[in-house]
Specification:
With about 350 residues, this protein is α/β, with parallel strands linked by helices. The chain is built from 15 helices and 8 strands. Strands 1, 2, 4, 6, 7 and 8 form a 6-stranded mixed beta sheet that branches.
């Protein structure tokens, strides 16, 4: 008995394969759960993988890799050594409270990052993995921020995704800072994740950014981010932008996204814009947005605009143009009837 206990103690002290890392298989795991900062772990790894547990914001679906088609019989599982067929979540993916962040380290720097659910099968392929378990929230957020800013696309994009999922409320501020600091592609991605993943706090950040950002492309991307947000205020804010924003391009862009994402509500809004908007380019954008309504929903509105003698000539011309460019047979038939009168 004494010999057995001594062997068990030595195995535990050596920190080898006693750590369980989610559903990881075929990997050599070194347990370093005394480390609470991923940056410290990276500095100690020459080559290999770092892994840690991260709490996620409420409503997060379990991310995993799909090895087959998107069917009910799909096969799931990720790999640390080979590329993935596809990656992400679906509407029926189970809800998660934690995910596992894997980071491949080479020469003291992070080369790639993967985020998977605790129950997502991961094939290690003989990889050496340093497991640090649960980290300090602030330390892990700061580390993800540094990887996002300093890494190539694969690692940086995945680190940004992990930031968006992080349960710490300060993750919203990290994303907001990326937007205001105008880091080119990072601004648009950070805006998307504020809308997609951060709920009410993300909405509040987007609302604040409308006041902070100068006119231009990044500010217009706030409109799309609002369409991805599930808070009840998001739609009302987008409608307000389409009607009242001082920037005509912002108003026109908002009309487009209303048509794309909220077609039922957009019909009356677009007709109202055509009758009340004074800016010519916004009017053109409103007619174009009508043409983007799904199915044949926009056809009767375009026909109404094309036939209305009270409408400015340019509006009638735009309505006929989009009728002519429609793939909808009903729209083409309506235009032919109009032209042969």
């Amino acid at each position: 008995m004494k010999t057995w206990m001594t062997g068990l103690l030595l195995a535990m002290l050596s920190g080898s394969a006693w750590a369980q890392v989610g559903a990881l298989t075929h990997a050599t795991v070194t347990d370093r759960t005394s480390i609470i900062d991923p940056a410290v772990a990276v500095s100690e790894i020459s080559n290999g993988w770092l892994a840690f547990n991260m709490p996620v914001v409420e409503g997060t679906r379990t991310p995993c890799c799909w090895q087959g088609n998107w069917t009910s019989n799909r096969e799931v599982g990720c790999s640390l050594q080979t590329g993935q067929h596809s990656y992400g979540t679906s509407h029926d993916s189970p809800l998660a409270t934690n995910v596992i962040v894997y980071a491949r380290v080479s020469g003291g720097s992070v080369k790639s990052v993967q985020i998977v659910g605790e129950d997502c099968p991961v094939e290690g392929g003989g990889a050496e993995v340093t497991w640090i378990g649960t980290t300090n929230d602030t330390a892990s957020l700061d580390w993800l921020d540094r990887v996002t800013r300093s890494s190539q696309h694969d690692a940086g994009d995945s680190a940004l995704y992990a930031t968006a999922l992080h349960a710490n409320p300060q993750a919203t501020k990290h994303l907001q800072d990326l937007v205001t600091e105008q880091h080119s592609e990072l601004s648009g991605q950070a805006l998307f994740w504020l809308g997609e993943a951060r709920g009410v706090s993300g909405y509040r950040a987007l609302d604040a950014l409308l006041d902070e950002l100068p006119r231009g492309e990044t500010r217009q991307q706030v409109n799309f981010a609002l369409t991805q947000n599930d808070s009840p205020e998001a739609l009302a804010r987008l409608v307000d932008i389409s009607r009242n924003d001082a920037d005509p391009e912002q108003r026109g862009n908002a009309l487009f996204w209303l048509a794309q994402e909220y077609p039922e509500q957009a019909e009356d809004l677009l007709l109202d814009a055509v009758s009340s908007e004074k800016d010519g380019e916004v009017l053109e954008q409103a007619v174009f947005a009508v043409s983007q309504l799904p199915g044949s929903r926009g056809t009767p509105i375009l026909l109404q605009l094309a036939q209305d003698p009270e409408q400015p000539r340019e509006i009638r011309r735009q309505a006929m143009f989009w009728l002519a460019n429609s793939d909808d047979n009903e729209a083409l038939a309506a235009l032919e009837e109009l032209l042969t009168r």
